[in-house]
């Protein structure tokens, strides 16, 4: 177990693609690294919003799903064994008289670092939880709020609870993976549907239950077995055997407290210089969290910004360190 008072060279706030790449590159720079992620899993917005969708703008990779990208990035980031903290939200960052930083999270735990790299994006997105009877029993097992592992749905009966296009996208993505897919929508239409979405849904094997709600989950307490749905127009009840639930009923947003951390912002983002330095010496930022002239909101941009932030942090700790390192040199014997 790591020493709770251990001083790290860098603490990275945020475990999305930018934070993960920063963790990898800081390992290349021989920096003792810790990542603090507010969620229970890594991957950020890619893991939460489009794990099943394909990305085409990652250099050298013609096509990759969000899930696959996150998996590869976690593998890459783990190369130098950074410490990773899950389920903690950084509330305060205080620079001490000796120049180090103390970070305090919502759990009142403290973390210590010589430098900080902020890769939080805009903030935290939290999915609206399923409120059906007995839902809390299966929250950590068979109720899912994103597709973070397509394989877990293979050959299963999956119920998608959503009034939104997101639910439709998930259902169609699972059609060729799951044995059976049922979509439950409490409304009479799906929100934010695009051109051709309704036609693709109608032509698929996905079953759709409109004007319906999941009233109760039924199971042993350890294993979900079925869901009772109620037709709101007729009151008719139906019990459907299910293995997994996917739920998208909306998202709440909690902005990152940049101003509370005394960071200079513009357009609600941290203003940085060419070295990704914020206005407080020793704090750097990268990815969607930052603002500068002609900033591009791309995953690829976050990678470049992350490596720049790491190099700046390394130089801040040791001004005599090389400006950057190359993987062909670091891993020449592998």
Automatic annotation (TrEMBL):
Belongs to the ferredoxin--NADP reductase type 2 family. This is Ferredoxin--NADP reductase. Homodimer. Keywords: FAD, Flavoprotein, NADP, Oxidoreductase. It is an enzyme of class 1 (oxidoreductase). It holds the Pfam family Pyr_redox_2. HAMAP family: FENR2. It comes from the Bacteria. GO terms for molecular function: ferredoxin-NADP+ reductase activity; flavin adenine dinucleotide binding; NADP binding. FAD binds at residues 18, 37, 45, 50, 90, 288. Binds 1 FAD per subunit. It catalyses: 2 reduced [2Fe-2S]-[ferredoxin] + NADP(+) + H(+) = 2 oxidized [2Fe-2S]-[ferredoxin] + NADPH. Residues 8-310 form the FAD/NAD(P)-binding domain. SUPFAM superfamilies: FAD/NAD(P)-binding domain. Its EC number is 1.18.1.2. Its cofactor is FAD.
């Amino acid at each position: 177990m790591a020493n709770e008072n251990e001083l790290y060279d860098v603490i990275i706030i945020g475990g999305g693609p930018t934070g993960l790449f920063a963790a990898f590159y800081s390992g290349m720079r021989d920096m003792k690294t810790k990542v603090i992620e507010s969620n229970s899993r890594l991957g950020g917005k890619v893991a939460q919003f489009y794990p099943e969708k394909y990305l085409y703008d990652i250099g050298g990779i013609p096509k990759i799903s969000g899930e696959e990208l996150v998996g590869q990035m976690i593998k890459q980031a783990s190369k130098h064994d950074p410490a990773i903290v899950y389920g903690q939200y950084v509330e305060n960052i205080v620079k001490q008289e000796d120049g180090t930083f103390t970070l305090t999270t919502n759990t009142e735990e403290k973390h210590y670092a010589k430098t900080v790299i902020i890769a939080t994006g805009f903030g935290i997105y939290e999915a609206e939880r399923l409120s059906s009877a007995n839902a809390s029993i299966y929250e950590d097992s068979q109720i899912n709020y994103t597709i973070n592992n397509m394989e877990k749905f293979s050959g299963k009966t999956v119920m998608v609870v959503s009034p939104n296009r997101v639910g439709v996208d998930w259902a169609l993505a699972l059609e060729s993976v799951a044995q059976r897919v049922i979509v439950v929508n409490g409304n009479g239409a799906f929100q934010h549907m695009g051109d051709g979405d309704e036609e693709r849904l109608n032509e698929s094997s996905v079953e759709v239950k409109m004007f319906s709600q999941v009233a109760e989950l039924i199971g042993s307490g350890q294993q979900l077995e079925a869901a009772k749905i109620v037709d709101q127009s007729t009151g008719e009840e139906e019990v459907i055997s299910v293995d997994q639930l996917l739920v998208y009923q909306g998202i709440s947003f909690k902005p990152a407290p940049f101003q509370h951390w005394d960071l200079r912002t513009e357009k609600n983002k941290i203003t940085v210089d060419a070295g990704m330095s914020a206005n407080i010496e020793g704090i750097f930022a990268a990815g969607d969290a930052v603002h500068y002239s002609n900033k591009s909101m791309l995953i690829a941009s976050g990678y470049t910004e992350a490596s720049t932030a790491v190099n700046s942090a390394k130089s801040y700790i040791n001004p005599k360190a090389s400006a950057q390192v190359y993987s062909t040199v670091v891993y020449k014997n592998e």
